[in-house]
Structures are given as structure tokens and as C-alpha cells.
Amino acid sequence: MKRQRWSTEDIPAQHGRTALVTGASTGLGFAIADALARRGADVVLACRDAGRAAAAADRIRAGSPGAVVRTLLADFASLASVRAAARRLHDEYDRLDLLVNNVGGFRVRYAVTEDGFESTIAVNHLGPFAFTGLVLDLLTGTPGSRVVTMGSNGHRQGAIDPADLDPEPGRAYRFVAAYNRAKLANLLFAHELDRRLRAAGTPTIAVAGHPGLARTDGGRELNALVRAALDPKVNPLALVLSQSAAKGALGPLRAATDPAARGGDYFGPRGRTGYPEPATSSALSHDAGLQRRLWEASEQLTGVSYLPIQESEASR
Questions:
Q1: 3-class secondary structure, 241
Q2: Of residues 93, 110, 173, 179, which has the active-site annotation?
């Protein structure tokens, strides 16, 4: 019997639901937002560049006439911007059905944010951690709501010490190690968030999805030779070794919309490419002690506490 291939046709109608997708002006984020809008969701594009966000919104409306698409200025490398975005969201919405933490990527060269954080861990984990906490009340008051975290196969090679999220500063920086560390942080966060949501008895679940190896501009700082190797116009093998952003988006889209998904589930292709299936993240990502230490470090670094789902001794 041929295995069923999950696609955007399997997304249930999303009418009456509001979905916020971070980093949605291009790549995976745009593909996720576009698919949700086509199924009827009101979509908010949270992006750091207002012009690119507006252009993305216009593209979505062109493909889905009548779609409700709004933009929200948010730079996840800046805690001040994250806080301002959360305030604006509260001013305009009293509920949120879906938060897709897609924003991410890496810096090839070592960089520090205005808050003093290494850039890759800041954009992939600390910024989204803070934003999720600041808007969590809009989700926990909404039945059927979900927080979706964008994972990566790279998390399997990741290592992290919550007491030192910048272990290779300056010239010691290795961007692949930094990216894998950040993606491990994403999965640790997703699992710990779901545990806390369940312990608090909220109607919200936390899930995750990964895209396999998808062709996006997340590595736009890579040198020309590497970019050419990943460009199917230059290297036909790229079509075999990787997949489009639209297909890569299917993993997180399934996490976001599959009626059978449960808290803590993870979806993505079995290998570098393919259709999304139930997946298992690394054993390290399920380390409860590591999850808690990273959570506590993230609260301390960002100054954001998850008040609706505070930890208690009885919940462990």
C-alpha cells in the first residue's frame, strides 16, 4: 500500500483563526503564511523589514483574494523590538490561535546583538522565547491554540550549556556549531513549553516541525561558491539534495494544523527531503534537566517570565 503524502491539501479550513508567523517575508515563513491564508486563516506577518513584509503581504493577497493579511514590525535580534511588537499585538488582538516561531538563520561571522547576545542564539532562541512569553496569554485563552517551533536536523549535532550560550566568541566562533546549538535550544524549548502548558491545564499545545534541507535565503552570508552549489539554476544536483521552501514548509504546517497532532509532536521528512511524517527529536532534546536549565537561563537573560504557566515543584 502506498504511503500517504501529507500536503497543503490536508490542511483543514482555517476560517476564523488568526495565525502569526515570524520571519514571514520570504522562504519558509512566507510559504507557511501563504498556505495558511489560502486555507482561510487571518495571517500576521512578523518581520524586521517593513517594506519586505508589505511586499509579502501583497503577494499573499494576490494569490488569495480577500485574504486578511497584516504585518507586525519585529526584529528578533532586539529585545526592545520584541517587547514593542508584543505590545502592538495586544493592542490589536484579544486572541491568537497559532504562533509559528519560524524566524531564524545564522551569521557566518561572529556578531553580538544590542543586548549583548551572540546573534545566532539570539535570533533563533532568545528573541522567540521572549516573544512567546509576552504573547502567551493571547494563546492560552484560545481553545485549540498551538505554538509551533521550527526545528532542524542540525539539532542532532548540537551541544549546549545553558550557563554559557556564547562559548566560542570572536575568532573562535564556528557558525555551524552556533546554528546547531541554537536549533537544539529550539527543541529543548518546544518540549519544555509543552510540558508546562500541560501542567498548567491550558488548552494550548506546543509542537515542532522541521523542513529537511530546504532552499531558502537563510544562508545568504555564505560565500558565492556555496550559494551556487545550492542553486538549482547553477547546480542541477541541488534539486536532488534539497527541496523548495514550499515543500520544506510542510513539516511545520503539519505541526500547525494536523488535527491528530498532540503536544510535543514533531513532524518533518525522514531525510533531507520528502513529505512530513511524525519524527523523533534527539535524546538530548528530551533531557528534562537540560530543558529546565535552559528555560531558567532564558528567563534570566531576556527578563521574560511565563506567568500563566509558572513552574512549580508539584509539576515535576
A1: helix
A2: 179
Q: Which of 39, 77, 80, 33 is nearest to 59 (CA)?
A: 33
**Dihedral, CA of residue 187, residue 79, residue 87 and residue 96, to nearest 10:** -10
Q: In terms of Cα–Cα distance, which of 226, 225, 191, 220 is closest to 205?
A: 191
Give the integer Cα–Cα distance in Å for 78 and 74.
8
What is the per-residue DSSP string for 151-173?
--GGGGG---BTTBS-SS-GGG-
**What DSSP assignment string belongs to 265-314?**
-EEE-SSSSS--EE----TGGG-HHHHHHHHHHHHHHH----GGG---GG
- Grid cell 518540549 — which residue? 191
Give the chain's residues under pLDDT 50: 1-3, 221-230, 232, 234-241, 312-316
- Whether 219 and 230 have beta carbons less than 8 Å apart is answered as yes
0.85 cut: is pTM over it? yes
3-state secondary structure labels for all residues of 82-116: HHHHHHHHHHHCCCCCEEEECCCCCCCCCCECCCC
**Active-site residue flag, 306:** no
Q: Cell numbers at residue 117, please?
A: 547576545
